[in-house]
Amino acid sequence: MAIASLRQDARFLLSRFRRLKIRSDVAAIFLFHTVEWEPTPWTHGHRYITPFDAFREQIAFLREHFEVVPTMELVRRQRAGTADRPLAAIHFDNGFATYDTVALPYLKQLNVPSTVFLIHDVLYGAVPTRNQLAFLLNTGTRTKFLRDLSATFCSTDAATFSGMTIAGALAWLKSRMTPQREALARAPLSEAQVALVAEAVYTRCDAADGLADGLIDDPRRCDFDPAAHLPICAGSASDSCFTRPQIETLVAIYSGPAAGGKQLFPGQPVGAEAAGGWSNWIVSDDGGTMGTLYATSFFRYMAFTPDEPDFDWREFDFAADPARVTIRETLDATDPDLSAFHDRGGKMITYFGWADTALNPMMGVEYYEAVQAKMGATTTLDFYRLFMVPGMLHCRGGLGTGRIDALTPLVNWVEGNLAPAMIPAERVEAGEVTRSRPLCPYPKVARYGGSGSVDDSGNFACTIP
Asked: For helices 161-176 and 244-255, what crossing angle results, to 10°?
């Protein structure tokens, strides 16, 4: 992703804020991933990087329209009703070194406080322990915080973080070892082969929704079968065909981990193979992936109690070890009972890219369906709506319409009781909007009306498939 596009996305979000009338009783937490002077070639693909000049503009806006305070002060004053102007706290959700080298020095220069991560029980009075580390909003601990929120929108939240990491481990193991973890080398998938998979997937399923537009609106309706729809190598592997073990690798990735007849975590939906969606997260011609990096530290220092610093995640036993992952009790936000949030008038919007390989989009779908089952479909729709984005990678990018303004619909819902029947989204290439589409509240999807440009959202309507 070009640096100009990263800046443009950051400034687009800022433009949405500038349109809002911010009430004096508002208290908001603004969450950043990481800030860099100039995103490097490696981080160009990380669509959640904020270039420093755009970050500086955003902080200037916050200082102008909010009183920026430490988190605990925000909590105390909001609860006591003593704030006489909008309050804001600034959070960073990851431990990137650039927080210390770029963001923090600038914030200190302005005397602006900030927080890295959020300890859940700091808000609720208990003494935090190592296992109470939680990431606010975007990493899945939403149900632990909702009783103190009136509104929230979450992009690609990791509701089942432990399961996601276990699935990432499975993808790596299956690409190199037998299911019994015997020391038999298995040829990894190359990025060129993944591009070949992408071509086969979209040839098979692009038009399954009635429109050949380069998008798969719901990958669950795609009947792609690697064994049937990919060329099999007559001899050794090459970038133009697949060996039988490589086919098994693909089946394992799409199927997800299971043990004892029980599904441990969803498989990766098809459709993310295009636009580099698998690169660095699932496959890499350079060796390790983000999945392997996460798995290494997760299993050594988070998964088990006590820590197991020498644990080799390549030896993870899918039959026995999942039960030992104690961090799931704190980290995974899977409780579908949102009645307290609903009863106090809260509203929530979440959206997920169907082509996200960093956080499996089925987490969002399965959690939403669990809330519907617990609270009823009608009640759920009254306060919580999920929007799935065809073709979008992690947070944005990919083949889909990845520029999304979820904030304005949320404000209109909270303050004007106007529930979002759709959210407008755009695809931006080289600084120009090349396609617009409505995002529809799940399970509705956008359907083409039969006339006019397929790149104009006005020619689509949200319908039940």
From this structure: 170
* Owner of token pair 């997260």: 281
How far is residue 188 CA from its own chain's centroid? 26
> Minimal CA–CA distance to 335: which of 152, 135, 149, 159?
159
**Inter-axis angle of helices 161-176 and 290-301, to 10 degrees?**
120
- If we measure between CA atoms, which residue out of 155, 135, 154 comes closest to residue 338? 154
- What contacts 264, CB < 8 A, 6 or more positions away? 163, 166, 167, 256, 257, 258, 318, 322
Residue 447, number of CB atoms within 10 A of its CB: 19
Asked if residue 351 lies in contact with residue 368, where contact means CB atoms within 8 angstroms, the answer is no
d(CA 219, CA 212): 14
φ, ψ (nearest 5 deg) of residue 384: -140, 125
Cα 25 from Cα 175, distance rounded (Å): 53
**What does residue 232 show for φ and ψ, rounded to 5 degrees?**
-95, 135
Amino acid at position 212, single letter:
A
Cis amide linkage into residue 113, ω under 30° from 0: no
* 169 and 293 Cβ atoms separated by less than 8 Å: no
Give the separation between CA 131 and CA 327, rounded to whole angstroms. 6
Query: Each residue of 354-390: pLDDT tens digit?
Result: 999 988 999 999 999 999 999 999 999 999 999 999 9
Q: Are strands 133-134 and 151-155 parallel, antiparallel or unpaired?
A: unpaired
The Cα–Cα gap between 320 and 332 comes to 19
Cα–Cα distance measured from residue 257 to residue 167, given in angstroms and rounded to the nearest whole number: 6
> What does each C-alpha distance from 365 to 83, 98, 220, 361 come to in angstroms?
37, 33, 11, 7
Residue type, 300: R
Closest CA to 409 of 371, 441, 378: 441
pLDDT tens track for 308-360: 999 988 788 888 888 898 888 777 778 899 998 898 888 899 999 999 998 89
**Mean pLDDT value across the chain:** 80
Whether residue 98 contacts residue 36, with contact meaning beta carbons closer than 8 Å, is answered with yes
In this structure, the number of other CB atoms found within 10 A of the CB of residue 56 comes to 14
